[in-house]
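[job 4471] stage=fold_predict status=RUNNING
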Amino acid sequence: MLGKPRVVLYGAAGHTGRFVAAEIARRGWTPLLTGRDMAKLKPVADRHGAEARQVEVMDAAGLDRLLVGADAVINCAGPFGDTAPPLIEATLQAGIAYLDVTAEPLVTMEVFASYADAARAAGVVVAPAFGFFGALGDLLATAAMGDWHSAERIDLALALDEWKPTRGSRLAGVRRAGRRVVFADRRLEIHDGTQAAPEGQWTFPAPFGEQPVLGEFSTVDVVTIARHLDVDAISTWINLAPLADLRDPATPEPDAGDASGRSAQQFIFEAVVHRGGEQRHAWAAGRDIYWVTAPLVVEAAGRILDGRARTSGMVSAGELFDAGDFLAAMAPHFT
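[job 4471] inference complete, writing structure tokens
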């Protein structure tokens, strides 16, 4: 495309939205920062010399006006069960790409089911769950799969040294109400809180090493990977330390570790693909799961707009891009 991309960022004043706004500005694009509260939007817009507009997601006419002249929409505003449907409908009407950063598996399942036909018919990209959760695990699993056409199992294992959750993360946990999305016997299942999750040990790359882990971690990557990789089961694991933080109501929200607002939280995310007694591994490590969402989703928007998307319609990260190439481009952000 010619000129600077014009990207509508909905939820620009939220914790993750501010990181995304900064990444859009860093790339020299033209952002339109939007959301439900102008008082919160204005400082973000002033910081980046950007335009801000207050629009409610239920205002269909307002959304239509908002998207005039836009090339893509990035949605960072939860609850995504409320914001994604009207924004997707508006972007389909406008004929432009939609991405969001939801980490909610149940919402993503509903979005995939509800809008797949309309997205295909419109011939545009609709890519929900394109953040740390949803995209990174999918890209790692796809890269590890390589030229294998099928696998028996994919393990996803996440280690965090701490988890100071945003308000949105806490609310998403409340809405999930203990339900876990699991992929077994080639189908998605929902386990409720009365079903005990498996426990185990996982040896992560340094500096985490061997860690006690809890299984059936309800990450949206299960939903995105199951869309396009031919696998019998997906197992998900998370170490115990961040779960203690999540369960403690006194755990504070993320605190800034540098001028960008990025916290000191450390992560390692590993994918292991199993087939016929063989294993293939891929992993990424870095700081701050909220911060790293910004380069992930903005890189995706850029690749869609410059023609590097492999397909259109309702898609996940591993379907949409060459996973190895995308992860290579992200390498500077994983340190």
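[job 4471] summary: The longest strand covers residues 151-160.
[job 4471] exit 0
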